[in-house]
Write a structure and sequence with these properties.
The chain is α+β, with helices and mostly antiparallel strands. The protein is built from nine helices and ten strands.
Length: 289
């Protein structure tokens, strides 16, 4: 799933490629992708893109007086074309979900695609994203917002009795962190994913805040300037523990372990994070309170 660093990199990429250009056509190809109907998607046609923003994992394209908001979900992606295919897209064929074509002789634009069977890619055409897109309305602060200093971060965690892994992933607490970067942040902070957020000491909270900002900023910097097609590969190569079960930890050399859930998994290093103890299944473990 694209998370804050990849979506921020997409925002920068699209700012350079879209802003100032007029939308010639916005065509939904998969029936499920468009979540709003008033105004119609066609209302963005004939208007210029004036800005590209980000709200957590949401992309926000300001087009005329409207906003085209995109959430890529788990398996969605944006594919840029300097020249879009001449043939019109065929509904129901392949992963293509929506196409946006720019005016001009080159026929540039982008496709939104989604692999797999869980169709969760979402597009909203709205006047006010904060008021009309439910996912944006409930977002917590951005982890890279300078206002989220160590004191503000501690206040967010203070009333949380949940495990810290779940708190970091909760978009209503922090906007933009998902499964992969929460693993990376906890590894950098040398903290168990099962530790309860409300029980963190002041020193642990400070270490977690520092790890969060450093990890995300480094990932954003690695992605900056890359073309959209390169971002997935960059994310995978930059991860130190997530998705690396069975490999040696790059810090201590211990074997990276995994805790599996119904539809996801977390990875961690026992030596770095849990005092050398492997974590049991999430439903059974009471390790490392």
């Amino acid at each position: 799933m694209p998370e804050l660093p990849e979506v921020e990199a997409l925002r920068e990429f699209l700012t350079g490629h879209l802003v100032g250009h007029e939308v010639a056509r916005a065509l939904p190809v998969a029936f499920h992708v468009l979540k709003t109907y008033d105004p119609p998607l066609s209302a963005v046609e004939g208007h210029p893109v004036t800005a590209v923003g980000r709200h957590g994992k949401f992309l926000d394209l300001a087009i005329g007086d409207l906003h085209l908001v995109v959430h890529l979900a788990r398996a969605g992606w944006l594919r840029w074309h300097d020249s879009l295919p001449a043939a019109p897209p065929r509904p129901g064929k392949g992963p293509l979900a929506l196409r946006v074509a720019l005016a001009g002789p080159q026929g540039a634009g982008f496709d939104l695609t989604e692999a797999g069977t869980q169709k969760r890619l979402a597009v909203y055409c709205v006047r006010d994203p904060a008021a009309e897109v439910p996912g944006i309305a409930r977002l917590g602060p951005d982890p890279l917002d300078p206002a989220l200093d160590e004191a503000a971060f501690a206040a967010l965690l203070g009333g949380e009795s949940r495990q810290i892994k779940g708190v970091l992933r909760d978009q209503s607490v922090l906007a933009g962190i998902g499964n992969a970067y929460s693993d990376e942040i906890l590894h950098a902070a040398r903290m168990s994913p099962f530790k309860q957020a409300a029980r963190l000491t002041g020193e642990e909270t400070a270490a977690l805040h520092a790890a969060m900002t450093a990890t995300l900023r480094a990932a954003v910097e690695r992605s900056r300037g890359l073309a959209a097609r390169q971002l997935k590969t960059e994310k995978k190569t930059g991860l130190r523990v997530h998705g690396r079960t069975g490999e040696p930890c790059p810090v201590c050399g211990d074997t990276i372990r995994e805790v599996s859930y119904r539809d996801s998994a977390l990875q961690y290093c026992p030596t770095c994070q849990t005092g050398g103890k492997p974590l049991a299944d999430r439903r059974m473990s009471r390790l490392l309170k």
